[in-house]
Design goal:
Strands 1, 2, 3, 4, 5, 6 and 7 form a seven-stranded mixed beta sheet that branches. This protein is globular. It has one domain: Nuclear Transport Factor 2, Chain: A. It contains three helices and seven strands. The relative contact order is 0.22.
Length: about 120
């Protein structure tokens, strides 16, 4: 069986900036349509969202809870194999102190995100 070629770094970096870093809902839903499979599921620590519209709404709620200057930044490249990728990230004001760090773990099908698990690091980790 030949493994599907997936650009883990390109797709997961795009998800971080074009979905989680995008405050314009129209541009965000367009990016979700390009990056996520139909029926994709986003799993956050407190909730899950299924489908493009629900994922966009979950990100809207997340961004509304953060200061407008907060940005998500990758910590190194994403890596993956056999359809599963991981990207470490940090969030906080640009040039300021890091407020939170975490890891996104995605399962890909057909070159798109099928599931995304957002794992938050404990405070001070």
């Amino acid at each position: 069986m030949i493994a599907e070629r997936i650009d883990y770094d390109g797709l997961m970096q795009a998800n971080l900036t074009r979905v989680f870093g995008e405050r314009d809902a129209g541009r965000r839903i367009e990016a979700i349509g390009e990056l996520y499979a139909e029926g994709a599921v986003l799993h956050e620590p407190q909730a899950s969202a299924t489908g493009h519209a629900a994922i966009s709404e979950a990100v809207t709620e997340l961004l509304a809870s953060l200061p407008p200057v907060f940005a998500f930044t990758a910590i190194g490249p994403a890596v993956g194999h056999h359809g599963v990728g991981r990207l470490r990230w940090a969030a906080g004001p640009p040039g300021g102190p890091v407020a939170v760090t975490g890891t996104d773990v995605a399962r890909f099908e057909g070159g798109r995100i099928q599931t995304l698990h957002v794992l938050l690091d404990p405070a001070g980790a």
